[in-house]
Amino acid sequence: MENKENLNDVKILGSGSISQGEYNNVKVAGSGQILGNIKANDIKVSGSGDFQGNIITKEIKCSGSMSCNGTVKSSYILKVNGSGIFKEDLTGKEIILNGGSSISGNVSFENMISRGSCEINGNCEGEEFNSFGYIRINELLAADKINIVPEGEAYIKEIGGEEITIRSEQKKKFMFLKFSFSSDGFINCDIIEGDKITLENTKCKIVRGENITIGRGCEIGKIEYTGELNITDEKSIVGEKVCMKN
Fold first, then answer.
1. Per-residue pLDDT tens for 58-90?
2. Which InterPro entries does the record cross-reference, listed alphabetically (predicted)?
3. How many CB atoms neighbour CB 180 within 10 A?
4. Helix or strand run (H / E) with residue 243
5. CA of 166: how far to CAs of 35, 44, 69, 79, 133, in Å?
6. Which of 11, 61, 159, 242 has the maximum number of C-beta atoms within 10 A of its C-beta?
7. Which residues, in sequence order, are CB contacts of 206 under 8 Å at separation 6+?
């Protein structure tokens, strides 16, 4: 991307459109449509932004709604307060989704936080992942550190990481903007695999790891462990337990 001193700023105030191209700052205040591929140092949407092509940028911040038909790559931060619809792959160093988001492709990140509702059709991979609310990932969630507080009937096909925590906080309410929820949900998985695993309100066919703690509200088909297994709630249902210690 060119030096920002050589690039123009572009704004939509009210309703309008922007042609594809390379810009410094892009600002949409109202309702705007971007008609092709766009490169920019900074993109801000206050209202509604409809991006028809690919996006390459350092930073995206949206308060309202944004829809992206192409791939999105943000080298620094992508933050959506409201509604985000991404039809292809989403890549960002830091991804923050507050409200309701849908990603049809894969997600790559260093740090990701989802508060509200998030649906991902592909893989979701990075370093640290946090989710508070409804989450659905149809393929693999892989991160070094994973923390999930599910709302409703959440689903992740496979979870892999070093430290994995799924917990319930029934009496606590998360508040931001005009959106709130109380966490009393659970999560369905096919496989959970990690080094240190702590689970509550989890239904999973196979849990595999080193040190595993099973708390309340769990239904686990099979556990394979190489370190310690701790079942803290006798009401949780655990099927086969296999110690893999040498």
1. 999 999 999 999 999 999 999 999 999 999 999
2. BacA/B
3. 10
4. strand 237-243
5. 41, 33, 32, 24, 12
6. 159
7. 190, 191, 192, 221, 222, 223, 224
Max Cα separation, the chain?
67
Q: Rounded distance, CA 74 to CA 172, Å? A: 33
Q: Is 244 left (phi over 0), alpha (psi -120 to 50) or beta?
A: alpha
Output the CA–CA distances (angstroms, integers) from residue 233 to 2, 56, 201, 215, in the order listed.
58, 48, 11, 5
CA distance linking residue 33 with residue 56, whole number of Å: 16
Q: How many residues does the chain have?
A: 246
Residue 88, CA distances (Å) to 66, 105, 221 in order: 14, 5, 34
For residue range 202-212, what is the model confidence (pLDDT) as tens digits? 999 999 999 99
Distances (CA, A) of 67 to 62, 133, 137, 155: 11, 21, 19, 24
pLDDT computed for residue 168 by the predictor: 87
